[in-house]
Design goal:
Blueprint lengths: L5 H22 L8 H11 L7 E7 L4 E7 L11 E8 L26 H17 L6 E8 L7 H7 L10 E12 L3 E3 L2 E4 L1 E10 L3 E2 L9 H19 L6 E10 L5 E2 L2 E10 L2 H21 L3 E10 L2 E3 L1 H15 L4 E3 L11 H6 L2 E9 L19 H18 L9
Parallel strand pairs: 3-4, 3-5, 5-16, 6-15
Antiparallel strand pairs: 1-2, 2-4, 6-16, 7-14, 8-12, 8-13, 9-11, 10-12
The protein binds nickel (II) ion.
The site of nickel (II) ion has 4 residues, from loops.
Length: 412
């Protein structure tokens, strides 16, 4: 049976206000690093909490990030051993045209909260509101990180590099992401590798253009590009241990102007996903070698740039067990789900988890069958999930600050 707790009532008292806020954010989406109005609204919501002890620092990560710090007042909160926990919410939207038909649908053509970051921002605000009013239950400090540019640009890296986890010194960090693959109210965690490193690459095949009827006088970059694409399919199958996982995808190809002209060059772009650093480096090298080697074999020349994107999201096993145990106590065993396999999607909360132990938590949001997927033009973060997420944040904060990770020391 879920344990009784003051958090449910405290969260319930904020519910109506949070629903209105979430719908406001949904109607006013802003892309990565452009979250100016969102950031202003977050700051406005935090303003009255200053009277309850919240310190608000604006201007992070190129300007739109906000870090707010709450020092608890429970006995021991001011001791040297007191812990600090970071909670993170991402704020940016996607360049997607909304098709939900909702009364609060996006008012900005071509932009949409299709990944539910409107919900994530709102849940973090909800946690700030509730925890400020229950400061006396916190035996340490909470750092609320409102982060820009998760979708594109790695706002998480800026937050961490600028010291969001340094003052006060954070001991553990947690984030929530709504997932329509899980039913509403589920709290799911994949211990260990949870989401993939997400890297990009660009290839330019330089050949020699000419008449389509005289290929012998050219070096045809289209044929070379075709061979490269074919050969890249063997990188994962022949160079990665079959027990491990990786993906190499070419998602964009551009070359040529007419049916009877061999062009001078072809450009391609792709993504590389992996779950372990050693595999990541090996795939990068294999892709580079394959691209340049195939081009050279045809007398062409290929330029390739492989760029590190977001690292692997590594959920500390002890922190993961802590989250699942906390969720079991709060909501019952059937709503705490340990996931057996990671996803190959990327997530820049990875930068936080490179620095401190913690977990990326998947919050179930599916209110019915065939709920639209993330990034879909009909996706809408359901308001019913807001109180669940706020309660998860509050309970994690209270318990971590009181007990740390009970029964084991966090690694790393
Ligand atoms: Ni997202």
């Amino acid at each position: 049976m879920p344990a009784a707790s003051p958090w449910k009532d405290a969260v319930e008292a904020e519910r109506a206000g949070l629903v209105a806020l979430r719908q406001h954010f949904h109607a006013h989406p802003e892309l990565s690093f452009e979250e100016h109005e969102t950031s202003k609204r977050v700051a406005r919501e935090l303003e009255p909490l200053k009277a309850l002890g919240l310190q608000v620092r604006t201007g992070w990560a190129k300007g739109t990030g906000i870090v707010a710090v709450l020092r608890g007042t429970a006995p021991g909160a001011d001791s040297k051993e007191a812990r600090t926990v970071a909670l993170r919410g991402d704020m940016d939207a996607l360049p997607v045209t909304e098709e939900t038909g909702l009364p609060y649908a996006s008012t900005v053509p071509g932009k949409m909260h299709a990944c539910g970051h409107d919900g994530h921002t709102t849940m973090l605000l909800g946690a700030a509101k509730v925890l400020c009013k229950h400061r006396d239950r916190l035996k340490g400090s909470v750092v609320f990180c409102f982060q820009p540019a998760e979708e594109s640009g790695g706002g998480g890296r800026f937050m961490v590099d600028e010291g969001a986890l340094d003052d006060p010194k954070v001991g553990a960090a947690f984030a929530l992401h709504g997932f329509p693959s899980h039913r509403l109210g589920t709290v799911a965690v994949k211990p260990g590798e949870s989401q993939a490193a997400s890297d990009s690459f660009q290839v330019t095949v330089h050949g020699m253009g000419g008449h389509g009827a005289a290929p012998h006088n050219t070096i045809d970059p289209i044929v070379v590009a075709a061979r490269i694409i074919e050969a890249l399919q063997s990188v994962v199958s022949r160079e990665v241990n079959p027990i491990e996982s990786a993906v190499v995808t070419i998602g964009k190809i551009n070359g040529g102007f007419a049916r009877n002209v061999i062009p001078p060059k072809v450009e391609m772009e792709g993504t590389i996903r992996s779950l372990k650093e050693a595999i990541r480096r090996r795939v990068h090298e294999a892709v580079k070698r394959t691209v340049t080697g195939i081009a050279a074999s045809a007398g062409a020349r290929a330029e390739i740039h492989v760029n590190d994107g977001y690292p692997v999201v590594y959920n500390d096993p002890v922190a993961s067990a802590f989250v699942l145990d906390t969720a079991r106590h709060a909501f019952g065993a059937d709503r705490a789900v340990e996931l057996p396999v990671p996803s190959m999607g990327g997530e820049d909360f990875a930068f936080f988890l490179q620095k401190v132990p913690g977990a990326m938590i998947r919050l179930g949001v599916a209110t019915g069958e065939n709920y639209p997927g993330l990034h879909h033009p009909k996706y809408n973060f359901p308001d019913e999930a807001l109180p669940v997420g706020v309660e998860v944040f509050c309970r994690i904060a209270e318990r971590y600050l009181s007990e740390g990770f009970p029964g084991a020391q966090p690694k790393r």
